[in-house]
Amino acid sequence: MLSKLRRLADLPLIEQALFLQLTALSLGLRVALSCVPLHLVASFISRVASSSRIGQILIPHAHWTTDRLVALADLAAAASHRNSRCLSRALLLFWLLRARLQPVSLCLGVSKNQNSLEGHAWLEQDGVVLGDTLSFVSRYALLFRWPT
To answer: Is the separation of the CB atoms in 98 and 104 below 8 Å?
Structure first.
């Protein structure tokens, strides 16, 4: 916990502000996903993020690299979810990249691990996995891709 707080304190002020926005959005997504199917949430994010009003909602993030946005989305997901934060991270990053009008796909997969099923969410852009490694996501059978 202390290392997370140190990482947050070391962020520049503008990144701290974006982190706070992403954390609030992550908590909102958590509530939305408890009562709305994922494909409708993903569709809504895609529609809203690509509207011209997105610049008024999120702190401008166009100058940050995709890797930096992955790190900030991961921090926000970790702050708002103790377990299973990959879906939250993927949705946050999906929002940010769609706001940049970048073509990106939200992917969900499952893997049978011993006696249980394990799920994972990730993003792909032009066939390239974002925020994860290809060797990691290749363990999962793809069940859902938005948009198809």
So the answer is: yes
Taking only the tens place, the pLDDT of each residue in 38-67 is 999 999 988 888 776 665 566 677 788 999
How do the domains of the chain map onto residue ranges?
Answer: 2-146
Q: How many CB atoms neighbour CB 147 within 10 A?
A: 11
| CB contact set of 130 (below 8 Å; sequence gap of 6+) | 66, 70, 93, 97, 104, 122, 123, 124
Residue for token pair 């891709």: 145
The sheet with strand 141-146 has its strands ordered as: 128-130, 116-125, 105-113, 141-146
Cis peptide before 147 (omega within 30 of 0): yes
- Cα separation, 28 vs 77, in Å, equals 12
User: Contact at 8 Å (CB) between 108 and 143?
Assistant: yes
Nearest to 69 by CA among 13, 18, 115: 18
Are the CB atoms for 77 and 85 separated by under 8 Å? yes
Q: What is the 3-state secondary structure (H, E, C) of 95-138?
A: HHHHHCCCCCEEEEEEEEECCEEEEEEEEEECCEEECCCHHHHC
Question: What's the whole-model pTM score?
Answer: 0.88
